[in-house]
Specification:
This is Dolichyl-diphosphooligosaccharide--protein glycosyltransferase subunit 1. The protein has a 10-stranded mixed sheet with strand order 3-6-5-4-7-2-1-11-14-13. By secondary structure, the protein is mainly beta. 13% of the residues lie in helices and 50% in strands. It is flat and about 100 Å long. Strand 16 and strand 17 form a beta hairpin. The chain binds 2-acetamido-2-deoxy-beta-D-glucopyranose (NAG) (3 copies). One 2-acetamido-2-deoxy-beta-D-glucopyranose binds next to loops. One 2-acetamido-2-deoxy-beta-D-glucopyranose binds next to strand 20.
């Protein structure tokens, strides 16, 4: 009996909790969007969305944050979110970048996820501001059919909403979707919606309440090679003796529609415009100028079919895997190169130095699912710190190579969903005592000395035996 009463009690308590939580789920008061323009660029395999929002504060309390809403699926595939505030018009327009970070709201409807844009100056009641936002999604085009033969084109699906997902009321909005060609199989109509060439235009839509949603599916041709590096490990080793040595391990895949049937090299080579249009046979990496000792090898051995072109601004490395990469196919390879130390290592104060190097993948137009950047500091370096303009996971390790006494500090940076936009400079600062410069030569000298002494002793013994 007591147990029954107790469970009834629990039941009412939980009912009460459900009641209160569901009633407190609400739209976000404070702001409204007067005008929103969205441009969705689907011309490659990386989805880039440009948003322009004219935001107004309609409440008494000043507003210092503007929220962007994403579905859980979009959130998982988000690679980058950038925002800037604009001043002036047309040619006199200027941009001030704003801080953006993921944030959570209690009881968000349909598990909506958020990013918060922090305004430099809070918005007072009745004030408006214009924000420009860019966000990038990876793995958001779904090949359909999932398998194609060598002579077929690649078709993909893109899912989104005709109206912008937002926690705010939007008075007026429009969306333009850019498709790589005018080959559109189908697209969801949400009046008014129309197609002109390779553009689909949705809207204008007026007075949409918070969290309005109007699902759309677009099915279109996209023969862009879906170059995805599933795993990339870059090791950047600093030697104060004059070079920065870079070694990069790639696990590359074509994430497009899977290749069906047998591969015909004859067909591939005789009809390059109609055969394997979504495959890739070479890749172009942009390396720093003054690069030297470049090599490229795969599991079998060194590959000579790579070309290096250098000029004063950059070097271009064109590599050709042993076979063209069709949908679903993979290639594993390593490239290595060295660059002069003075181009990348600088002194910031007495005894303090920093490396300034590029973060992302040097291959054009490539997504990296998991990137690890390891910066191997010279022996005797202390207090490393990293400056990078987006969130990364950081840790430290120690690496021993020959002639090392105390080992080298390795700064390990990890990031998922990396886009070409992440290929920007980052810095690793550290302290270094020049006395350590002597450590290696001293080790060498003592090694030679030891060798000399041992041989001497040996010879001596040997001689004494012969006597
Ligand atoms: C939640 O998702 C469902 C199904 O997609 C949709 O019908 C509903 O309107 C959404 N609710 C909100 C508040 O967005
Ligand atoms: C490949 O080239 C690298 C660097 O030039 C060299 O160290 C390595 O021994 C070569 N490997 C093979 C299998 O030829
Ligand atoms: C890092 O290098 C880039 C050019 O590669 C340069 O524009 C930037 O100012 C450098 N940053 C620092 C902190 O030295």
């Amino acid at each position: 009996m007591a147990a029954a009463i107790f469970s009834l009690f629990i039941f009412f308590i939980s009912l009460f909790i459900i009641q209160t939580t569901s009633s407190s789920s609400s739209s976000l008061p404070g702001l409204q969007i007067l005008h929103a323009e969205r441009q969705i660029d689907l011309s490659s395999h990386i989805v880039r969305v440009y948003l322009t929002l004219k935001v107004e504060n309609i409440e008494d309390a000043p507003a210092s944050k503007v929220l962007l809403a994403f579905t859980p699926t979009q959130f998982d595939h988000l690679s980058l979110v950038k925002a800037a505030i604009t001043f002036g018009k047309k040619k006199k327009k200027s941009y001030v970048p704003l801080e953006v970070s993921p944030t959570e709201l209690p009881n968000s409807p349909n598990e909506t996820k958020y990013y918060a844009i922090s305004l430099v100056k809070p918005l007072a009641k009745g004030e408006t501001t214009t924000l420009e936002i860019l966000y990038i999604l990876t793995h958001s085009l779904e090949p359909f059919p999932v398998e194609i033969s060598q002579s077929e084109s690649q078709l993909v699906y893109y899912h989104d909403s005709a109206v912008i997902l937002s926690p705010y009321h939007i008075k007026q909005q429009a969306t333009i979707v850019q498709i790589p060609s005018n080959k559109v199989e189908s697209f969801t109509q949400v009046e008014p919606a129309q197609r002109s060439g390779s553009d689909l235009r949705y809207g204008p839509y007026e007075e949409r309440s918070p969290y309005s949603n109007s699902p759309i599916v677009i099915h279109f041709e996209n023969n862009h090679p879906f170059a995805v590096v599933e795993e990339l490990e870059r090791e950047i080793e600093i030697s104060h003796w004059g070079t920065v040595q870079v070694t990069e391990h790639y696990k590359l895949a074509n994430a497009g529609a899977k290749h069906k049937g047998v591969f015909s090299r004859v067909e591939y080579q005789s009809k390059p415009t109609a055969s394997g249009v979504s495959s890739f046979k070479h890749l172009l990496a942009e390396l720093p100028p003054r690069v030297h000792s470049v090599y490229y090898r795969d599991d079998i051995g060194n590959i000579s079919s790579s070309r290096l072109r250098t000029n004063s601004k950059k070097s271009e490395l064109l590599i050709e895997p042993r076979y063209p990469l069709f949908g679903g196919w993979k290639a594993t390879f390593v490239i290595g190169y060295a660059v002069p130390l003075q181009d990348f290592l600088f002194e910031s104060a007495a005894g303090a130095r920093y490396l300034n190097f590029s973060f992302g993948c040097p291959f054009a137009d490539t997504v990296v699912d998991k990137l690890t950047v390891k910066v191997v500091l010279p022996e005797g370096s202390k207090d490393p710190s990293v400056k990078v303009s987006f969130p990364v996971e950081q840790s430290l390790k120690t690496k021993y190579s020959y002639l090392d006494i105390v080992g080298r500090t390795v700064v390990v940076l990890e990031k998922k969903n990396v886009a070409p936009e992440h290929n920007v400079p980052f810095q690793v600062h550290y302290k270094f005592n020049p006395i350590f410069m002597l450590a290696e030569p001293l080790m060498l000298v003592s090694a030679f000395f030891l060798f000399f002494v041992t041989s001497l002793v040996y010879l001596h013994i040997d001689l004494s035996l012969r006597k």
